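Propose amino acids for all 157 sites.
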């Protein structure tokens, strides 16, 4: 097959990133308490996966197990703008998220039940992100105007 100039710009498989140890440990502790999710980390872009690309991460959330909310992310901020996307899969009502997600921006709590895009300006504290229920698969993605996902500010809440 001939090499094409821009074929490296198309990413169609997961190029695994290093998952922060704190996140792995938090999800492990919750699973030990009987709360976890069935999911698939689908695709990722950042400087490691494709030099110069904007960071983007995509996950399918299929099912939530256990009664308590699952804390996917703790409160933090970034030195870059970020967009979070939560998209339901109900063909008859694509705005139905098919679940319930609690999301915080600064000190304001939002209970998301509709497909949503959330813009977070740099320096704005956001999360925790808590998964309360999943009735049908949810496509979750994050992207930002940075080539890597990090928390340079070091501020986690």
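Proposal:
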């Amino acid at each position: 097959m001939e090499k094409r100039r821009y074929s490296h710009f198309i990413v169609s498989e997961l190029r695994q990133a290093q998952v922060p140890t704190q996140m792995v440990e938090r999800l492990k502790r919750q699973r030990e308490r009987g709360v976890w999710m069935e999911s698939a980390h689908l695709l990722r872009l950042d400087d490691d996966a494709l030099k110069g690309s904007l960071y983007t991460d995509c996950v399918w959330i299929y099912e939530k197990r256990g009664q308590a909310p699952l804390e996917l992310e703790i409160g933090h901020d970034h030195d870059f703008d970020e967009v979070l996307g939560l998209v339901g899969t109900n063909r008859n009502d694509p705005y139905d998220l098919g679940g319930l997600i609690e999301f915080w921006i600064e000190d304001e709590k939002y209970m998301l039940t509709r497909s949503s895009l959330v813009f977070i300006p740099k320096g704005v504290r956001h999360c925790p992100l808590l998964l309360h229920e999943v009735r049908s698969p949810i496509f979750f993605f994050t992207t930002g105007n940075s080539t890597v996902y990090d928390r340079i500010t070091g501020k986690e809440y």
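The longest strand covers residues 55-65. Residues 5 and 11 are 14 Å apart (CA to CA).
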